[in-house]
Design goal:
Layout: H1 2-18, H2 22-35, H3 41-57, H4 61-69, H5 78-83
Helix pairs in contact: 1-2, 1-3, 2-3, 3-4
Length: 93
């Protein structure tokens, strides 16, 4: 049942995003991560939470924070790979 509810919420978040209501989209994506963290929709929602925050604020730090969040959560997902480009490489100095 959680998977079904998460997918419904994901659809609502995608509608908000497509209407360029990025604050609402961010809120809805974050709710999925918070309420349904074990579903297939959660990693995708974490990714789009960061994108929505970036689109709403133009703060690239939102993308970096999202990339960092994937280092400890949903690490072996396609969404983590996509977000990895937002994390600066660690200096070996």
């Amino acid at each position: 049942m959680d998977d079904f509810l998460a997918q419904l919420q994901l659809g609502l978040a995608k509608i908000a995003f497509s209407h360029q209501d990025f604050k609402e989209a961010e809120k809805r994506y974050q709710q999925i991560v918070d309420q349904f963290p074990e579903t297939d929709a959660a990693p995708e929602s974490l990714y789009w939470t960061g994108v929505s925050r970036y689109k709403a604020t133009n703060d690239a730090g939102a993308l970096e924070q999202t990339g960092e969040a994937f280092r400890t959560r949903y690490t072996n997902t396609t969404w983590a790979k996509k977000a990895s480009v937002w994390v600066p490489a660690k200096s070996g100095r």
